[in-house]
Amino acid sequence: MSLVDVLLPTTTVGSYAVPGWLQATREMIRRGEFGRLDVREVLDDAVMAAITDQERAGLDILSDGEERRHDFIMGFYERIHGFRPMERPRKIGVEFYDTEVVYEAIDRIAAPAGLGIVEEFLFARTRTTRPLKVPVPGPLTLTTPTRRGPAYKTEETYVGDLARIVHTELQRLAEAGATFIQIDEPAFHPWFTQNIKGVVQLFNEAVRGVKAKIALHICFGNRAGRPRSRRSYVPFFPAVLEARAEQFVLEFANREMAEIDLWARFGVDRELGAGLIDQKSFYLETPEDVAGRIRMALKHVPPEKLYINPDCGMNYTPRWLAFRKLKAMVDGTQIVRGELGGGRTIEGQATPGSRGGGSGRARGARSARLRR
Ligand SMILES: [Zn+2]
Q1: Would you say residue 327 has pLDDT above 90?
Q2: How many angstroms is it from 20 CA to the middle of ligand 1?
Q3: pLDDT band at 198 (very low <50, low <70, confident <90, very high)
Q4: 176 CB-contact burial (10 Å; exposed 0-12 / middle 13-18 / buried 19+)
Q5: CB of 276 within 8 A of CB of 253?
Q6: In contact, 251 and 299? CB cutoff 8 Å
Q7: SS3 sequence of 327-346
């Protein structure tokens, strides 16, 4: 299912940079200096800033920047009943995975009012006419800063309850009009190396019957812009292909394009959302860098199956740099669209053009006419 009538659609993985004024405001909110309506106003403004930046950068498919969330998923535990926050294991020194609050499940967990992602989507939908991708944490991601605790005897029942919470949110999102949803799951969860079938089964339970385009982002970790696991996808293939995802969103830029041949190697017929911008790095990619990476990907993935995105969320990237990185990503994509003969698609199919020819370049630059 194609959301836009342009080849090599450009999009994000979810979070966008957090504006400096929002960071400062969060401190004031924590100190109780903002009322409920004040908080809503600044968060609405932050989402609009994220959307405007993505539009100006030229992305085809936007997100709301996850501006209402803090630290990617930490805000969700206030909405899930049954968790008790515990002391942070380490409070001094550099921010890392051991400086997060840990939540312990002391009762059966439930989110009767949902995770709030439907509300995020409904607001963003009124602020842009471009297609939106909605990032949703998968059940294994939600286990990241948690401990199973006395309420659950087995890991299966614990993650099963989290999968039900995610499933309900996905159903509600699709009913609210979301057409493109990305589930984020962590490669560093032990199941990825010990029980990949369990990962797939859980994912399929979470997405069962959800009427939207579903992508699976397998993340190597991004807390404070730092990875957490061994950065290789090969051990998960081909088993992970049993996941009912139309698209896989994977990191390549921060691994210097290692494993970009995965699609050819395993005969993958799904779309690839290729991470071609390293949001963890202070290095600003040039459009030519991006074009070169796209050309590498196109050796292994047909153009009509390839989406272009950063490796991961940009909430730990300074805003000025995040914007310039996205702009370079879009400009690099335009170069390759030109080489492909304009980059337009008809009914979601690629229009093959003269690979390497320069004549389509100008047309390609104007080709991002969008369908909702
Ligand atoms: Zn990620």
Answers
A1: yes
A2: 22
A3: very high
A4: middle
A5: yes
A6: no
A7: HHHHHHHHHHHHHCCCCEEE
CATH among 3.30.300.30, 3.40.50.300, 3.20.20.210, 2.40.50.140 for 20-365: 3.20.20.210
pTM for this model (two decimals): 0.91
Contact between residue 331 and residue 287 where contact means Cβ atoms under 8 Å apart: yes
- Which single residue is written with the structure tokens 């020819």? 357
Mark out the alpha helices in the chain (DSSP H runs).
Answer: 20-30, 36-57, 117-125, 139-142, 155-175, 190-194, 196-207, 262-265, 287-298, 319-339, 361-365
Q: Is the confidence at residue 357, as pLDDT, over 70? A: no
Ligand 1 centroid distance, CA of 346 (Å): 31
Write out the residues surrounding ion ligand 1, Cβ under 5 A: 219, 312
Answer yes or no: is pLDDT of 154 > 70. Answer: yes
Cα(214) to centroid of ligand 1, in Å? 16
CA of 144 to the centre of ligand 1 (A): 13
